[in-house]
Design a protein that fits this description.
It catalyses: octanoyl-[ACP] + L-lysyl-[protein] = N(6)-octanoyl-L-lysyl-[protein] + holo-[ACP] + H(+). This protein has helices spanning 20-28, 65-82, 148-152, 158-173; strands spanning 2-3, 8-11, 32-35, 43-45, 49-52, 89-90, 97-99, 103-113, 116-124, 144-145. Strand 6 and strand 7 form a beta hairpin. It is 25% helix and 23% strand. Strands 1, 5, 6, 7, 8, 9 and 10 form a seven-stranded mixed beta sheet that branches. A three-stranded mixed beta sheet has the order 3-2-4, with helices on one face. Helix 2 (65-82) runs antiparallel to helix 4 (158-173). It is globular and about 45 Å long. The chain has a single domain, classed as Bira Bifunctional Protein, Domain 2 (BirA Bifunctional Protein, domain 2, 2-Layer Sandwich). With 189 residues, it is an alpha+beta fold.
Amino acid sequence: MFEHSPPAYTVGIREGIYTEETEQKVVKLGAEFHRVKRGGLITFHGPGQLVAYPIFNLNNLPLPKNQKTFGVQQVLIQMLKEKFKLENVGRTENAGVWINEQKKIGAIGIQVRNGITSHGLALNCETDLKWFDYIIPCGLKDKSTTSISNELNKQIKVTDVIGPLCEYFGTVFELKINLNINANPQNFI
């Protein structure tokens, strides 16, 4: 898990609609641009955003088949509702985690090959949301983005979210996760 620095835009497997002009535009803003093998369209990763790459063997998890599909999404939803007391958090027909079905707070782009996951999630903690203004995040024109800090009207740092995220991964996936709370949080970023 870490916080992205410098800012970067990534495009998933449906990359065809993004031209070199788009790439040059965001690079001029001071961001990196990467084409990756994950689900989804273009999104932003940058400072103030917790990015996690959980690697699971889905064949070995003690969960019903449908729970495996939505497990990562459920981790974020439960954590945001229970630990951060956000309301109206849930899923929609679009990938990710949403507030009031209109504001995306968490992106999920996971690849599964032979039952093993790669890539992961990005959760906006105290992200500068202006970076999303330069793209159509995940190809959704009529939606916006938000962050935990924005929703709570107080600063929530990435380091404030690492422990709860690990806790909820353990709960949802029935795993024991050891997090050394005495470790320097900068080691996670």
